User: Fold these one by one.
Assistant:
Number 1:
Amino acid sequence: FFQEVEQAPPDPILGVTEAFKKDSSPDKLNLGVGAYRTENLEPLVLDVVKKAEERIMSQNNNKEYLAVEGFAPFREVTARLLLGDDSKALKEKRVVTLQSLSGTGSLRIGAAFLAKFRAGTTVYISNPTWGNHFNIFGDAGLETAKYRYFDAKTIGLDFDGMVEDLSAAPAGSVVILHGCAHNPTGVDPTKEQWKKIAQLCKDKGLFPFFDVAYQGFASGSLEEDAWAPRHFADEMGLEIIVSQSYSKNLGLYGERVGALNAVVSSADEVPKVLSQWKRIARATYSNPPTHGARIVTEVVGDDALFSEWKKEMEEMSGRIINVRAALQKALESRMPEKDWTFITRQIGMFSYTGMTKEQVEHMWEKWHVYCTKDGRLSLAGLSLSRADYLADAMVDAINT
Ligand code: LMR
């Protein structure tokens, strides 16, 4: 039965962690997966999470199954965090929310829904994109295509290329948009460009599906980072789907907490869409885990914890900004002929360096510096004290 099974390739991101764990060098650095580390390169549990957990423990909750659609108070706070207190769609009860397993699980339910109800549609995904997007939509049985996004010459957005490719997509196609902090490039459209993308979706009948995995981590403001989906839904009156993750902004990686949301055109559609999402979730994992949803509810739903959370998020993104500056400086002093300013221009957790696969492999082998083969460095995994070491490794790899 199993004889014909071939070895699957390692995951482009989680495979890096596997290689890192096998390396016994004391110099090793894991700049692969986007997971926040402290200046001592230790994982961080936010204080607000610890406080929320204390409250949860004192509630003496049971371990019953959650409803297939998730924890009701969580579903309410998560939709509000995404769409805003003044959201027209929320006031008009045109929002569907299903608690799901962080970003990936939410995207997968959305993908399965598209495969069932929009069979034959093509899903347009930015080039480059997060290492799991093609797996998720492809495994759900959807056709996928790429649209231009990154301009290697300017290390910025190829906006004209993006508009040209999306304009040529057939009406009814789905477009995956990174809501903020584009992964892996750290390059986002400006508000003016977002407005044009929204208008293009409207004019060409393209369906926007946002992946919001870094709300609060891009600009440091939860509101600003949700500007694009809010604009599409409330200003432009578009129907959208949005996946959300609390892995990065609340550091709840292993708790697998997130949501799939849709803004639909009429309140009557809400129970119908939700019933289909529940149908898919039931057959996939039955119902979502409780603990993370309770934590999010305590933090987002409580004014005091909510403001503390914002401060802790600023500390995390502030540390990454400092690390960016230190790395840029270290590279400028070693290789002044090259323009390294992109490192502090890119936002979010990552730096997309343009390094080749061979250069990355050189860093893995000689320097024990692990990053993804596309040259993406997770700066959330770098400390100020290791910036010089990384710069040495990068310069050596580039000169070899
Ligand atoms: C990443 O891009 O490193 C993160 O989104 C983690 C993951 O699941 O790949």
Note: The radius of gyration is 21 Å.
Number 2:
Amino acid sequence: SVKKVGVLIGSLRKESFSRKIAKAVIALAPESLSFEIIEIGGVSFFNQDLEATPPADWLTFREKIKASDAILFVTPEYNRSMPGVLKNAIDVASRPYGHNAFNGKPAGIVSTSIGAIGGFGSNHHLRQSLTFLNMAQLAQPEMYVGNSAQVVGEDGEVANDASKDYLAGFGAAFAAWVHKTA
Ligand code: FNR
């Protein structure tokens, strides 16, 4: 059966390379997965004072995570870590205590950078939080997409066959992982 993957993108930028890479991964992935990008830009800042009367956007966001069989994270690196907007969304869906929406779901992690290191710091800071949140993370292949501006063009087209194979190979491994663990 087809498994539903919720996709979280760690950049709100309109022309985000991470978003374009996420769309390329989706386009190249096996048909045994269906994808929905879950937008995080409208998720209000987490504030523990609001937990008793949560904003409607928190509830909608948590429901979308819960309705997903698996989560794919595609994120840039900001200051050697994940962007605050992604951490905020994770914090919101991890609560209230004992009701972590991510609990037990398989996860795929793709980090991106316009530089050569490919978001290693972001990738592993994200993995630290996801480990605590009891997500079953695909370990291999690791996906550090460096030189992101060369991997996807303005139009979102993947620049060359080697990059296409790299993204497609990840999608295939992720699909196998999701079907094994979800
Ligand atoms: C960056 N960038 C960046 N790149 C990197 O490889 N390591 C880093 O630590 C950072 N830090 C960082 C901080 C902030 C605040 C910004 C705005 C940018 C550069 C980053 O790779 C580049 O802006 C990407 O284009 C961001 O990804 P999207 O928006 O294209 O998906």
Note: The first helix runs from residue 17 to 28.
